Structure to design on (223 residues):
């Protein structure tokens, strides 16, 4: 399969929650492809963020796919609630799954695309046996938990390695990268083989606004 289209997935973790609907509309108007929702449980990661209730509010704010990143222990018990709330993609961490193949199968059975991700310290070998069950693989380029952290360039070989494995086992799958992406760091990630780019601070905290933040990332996608 040839190169996949670049997709930008702004993460609402850095949005102004007093104006969430308007901020999502601004992303959509500026050409966002997906809306990324960071779900954190205060256990798997130290931070505590949002649940199905917010996903449902996002669903009413946009027609864009909702890309839900589950940074939670025992994700199995939450999948149905997020699917009902309107998630389009449900991504689970390999570190949290007792039976990853079964969890991914369950996500697809709920009508969502199935995503699998891994922490910076987890090797690609941990996800390799399950790639034939995924629609999306996600490489974390920061320690999950917070936005505005520095991009970890040492993850670039992992991105390339995972794309090579996906090409063998799930050639249609997207390869997403999350953490520290900006106009400066995105091109290297794209060259390594990723095609979906998550960004919180470089979109929502851009000094010239959401539209300018997305425009800068679009430029980076183009080369
Ligand atoms: C990190 C989250 C990311 C985060 C990215 O735990 O999974 O989606 O919001 O934030 P930035 O783009 O600011 O690094
Ligand atoms: Zn995320």
């Amino acid at each position: 399969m040839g190169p996949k289209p670049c997709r930008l997935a702004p993460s609402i973790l850095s949005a102004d929650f007093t104006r969430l609907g308007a901020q999502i509309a601004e992303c959509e108007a500026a050409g966002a492809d997906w809306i990324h929702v960071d779900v954190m449980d205060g256990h798997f990661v130290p931070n505590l963020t949002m649940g199905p209730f917010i996903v449902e509010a996002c669903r009413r704010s946009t027609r864009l796919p909702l890309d839900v990143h589950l940074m939670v222990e025992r994700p199995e018990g939450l999948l149905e609630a997020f699917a009902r709330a309107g998630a389009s993609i449900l991504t689970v961490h390999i570190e949290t799954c007792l039976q990853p193949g079964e969890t991914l199968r369950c996500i697809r059975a709920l009508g969502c695309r199935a995503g699998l991700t891994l922490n910076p310290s987890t090797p690609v070998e941990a996800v390799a046996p399950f790639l034939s069950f995924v629609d999306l693989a996600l490489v974390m380029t920061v320690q999950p938990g917070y936005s505005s952290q520095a991009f970890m360039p040492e993850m670039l070989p992992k991105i390339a390695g995972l794309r090579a494995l996906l090409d063998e086992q799930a050639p249609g799958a997207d390869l997403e990268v999350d953490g520290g992406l900006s106009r400066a760091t995105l091109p290297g990630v794209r060259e390594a083989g990723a095609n979906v780019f998550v960004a919180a601070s470089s979109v929502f905290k851009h000094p010239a606004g959401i539209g300018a933040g997305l425009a800068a990332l679009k430029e980076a996608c183009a080369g």
About this structure: The chain has a mean pLDDT of 98. The first strand starts at residue 7 and ends at 10. The CA atoms of residues 39 and 70 lie 5 Å apart.
